[in-house]
From TrEMBL:
<keyword id="KW-0119">Carbohydrate metabolism</keyword>
<dbReference type="InterPro" id="IPR040042">
    <property type="entry name" value="Branching_enz_MT3115-like"/>
</dbReference>
<dbReference type="GO" id="GO:0003844">
    <property type="term" value="F:1,4-alpha-glucan branching enzyme activity"/>
</dbReference>
<dbReference type="Pfam" id="PF03065">
    <property type="entry name" value="Glyco_hydro_57"/>
</dbReference>
<comment type="similarity">
    <text>Belongs to the glycosyl hydrolase 57 family.</text>
</comment>
<feature type="domain" description="Glycoside hydrolase family 57 N-terminal">
    <location>
        <begin position="17"/>
        <end position="262"/>
    </location>
</feature>
<dbReference type="GO" id="GO:0030979">
    <property type="term" value="P:alpha-glucan biosynthetic process"/>
</dbReference>
<keyword id="KW-0378">Hydrolase</keyword>
<dbReference type="InterPro" id="IPR011330">
    <property type="entry name" value="Glyco_hydro/deAcase_b/a-brl"/>
</dbReference>
<dbReference type="GO" id="GO:0016787">
    <property type="term" value="F:hydrolase activity"/>
</dbReference>
<protein>
    <submittedName>
        <fullName>Hydrolase</fullName>
    </submittedName>
</protein>
<dbReference type="InterPro" id="IPR004300">
    <property type="entry name" value="Glyco_hydro_57_N"/>
</dbReference>
């Protein structure tokens, strides 16, 4: 059995706001429509802010999937905030606002929670349990790399550094890609099946999302050099009871990955080649494991540095910490900090901070 999760965020750091309608047209509608037509169940992790931007016909498509039992809606942070960088009051405000929007627009109260960027700390499960959540998605690689809790003493090294270098265009791109493929395949040996119980302030059930599995699926569906759907399925054939894909819907039909565009048809070819039953993530069996997860994210080094080390990010985090109300949600949006944010995304956050300070609406 395998599971599928699609993550939707129209505040995406690298997508211009003027492109939002195109994203909906090229990715959201065709991907959702294709999966529902095939009667393929999946989890839809979509921010409350994004839901408020979607046209009514797309909301109706989602509602139909929920009613048919094909779409499992997850909760998340309303404006895609990096939760471990917020005060506890603001974490809860993000969690509650997202649920309110989903109850209002979709008439559903989610029980599964997807932290933006899978950014996690051990107090988050307690807040989620307090707010009616039973299960949280976590980064699988971070789980198996949580044996040492102080990265100042023992830094976390990326599992496939050459593939990251190839993606960034560093050095000989093709050589790094070839070496990266070997590292990627080797990293699949860390993947284990099923859910876990997280040892946290309040224990909670967790579903691992595996970045290396996501990467194999995307390289295969995109037909990158030496990869195709059948080969990707061959690499993944020994894995069972996992989330086969658990990342951005925008990569399917709209946003290229290193100049390779994945279509919904090529994406589904990987599932067809694997030939496994697809079930909602909530139905994955429990592995019997009890694990501690360190404060982490699904960044290559599993840290929160991407969202805090840059001077602009540090300034945003400092200025937004005492905000409340509507402006705070925009200031807390992770995509103002992002992997490679557009100026307009960053300015939205700075502008909301200024307007809140001046008392504007």
């Amino acid at each position: 059995m395998i599971a599928l999760l699609l993550h939707g965020n129209l505040q995406y750091a690298e997508i211009p706001k003027a492109e939002i309608e195109k994203v909906i047209e090229k990715a959201y509608v065709p991907v959702l429509s294709a999966l529902l037509k095939r009667e393929t169940p999946f989890a839809l992790n979509i921010t409350g802010f994004t839901l408020e931007l979607l046209p009514e016909d797309v909301l109706e498509l989602i509602r139909g999937g929920i009613e048919s039992g094909l779409i499992e809606i997850t909760g998340t942070a309303y404006s895609h905030a990096i939760l471990p960088l917020l005060s506890l009051d603001r974490v809860e405000a993000q969690v509650r606002r997202d649920r309110e929007v989903k109850e209002s627009l979709l008439e559903v109260s989610p029980k599964l929670f997807f932290p933006p960027e899978l950014a996690y700390d051990p107090i988050l499960p307690a807040i989620l349990r307090d707010n009616g959540y039973e299960t949280v998605f976590v980064d699988g690689e971070a789980l198996v790399l949580s044996d040492h809790l102080n990265r100042a003493i023992k830094p976390v090294k990326p599992l496939y550094p050459h593939l990251i270098k190839a993606q960034r265009g560093e050095g000989n791109r093709y050589v790094n890609y070839l070496l990266g493929l070997r590292e990627l395949r080797k990293s699949l040996g860390l993947v284990f099946s099923g859910k876990v119980t997280l040892e946290a302030v309040k224990e909670i059930e967790a579903i691992p999302v595996w970045v290396n599995v996501n990467t194999v699926v995307m390289l295969s569906a995109g037909r990158f050099p030496l990869m195709n759907p059948k080969k990707g399925a061959k690499w993944l054939r020994d894995l069972e009871d996992i989330v086969l894909y658990g990342t951005d819907i925008e990569f399917l039909g709209y946003r290229p990955l290193a100049d390779y565009l994945i279509t919904v048809d090529s994406f589904l070819e990987v599932f067809n080649a694997l030939g496994r039953e697809v079930r909602p993530p909530s139905e994955l069996p429990h592995s019997g494991r009890r694990l501690y997860l360190r404060t982490s994210s699904w960044a290559p080094d599993k840290s929160l540095d991407i969202w805090k080390l840059d001077d602009g990010n540090a300034r945003l985090n400092f200025l937004s910490r005492d905000l409340g109300g509507e402006k705070a949600f925009i200031a807390e949006n992770s995509d103002a900090r992002g992997w490679e944010p557009l100026p307009e995304r960053r300015l939205d956050a700075f502008r909301s901070i200024y307007e809140a300070w001046r008392g504007g609406e």
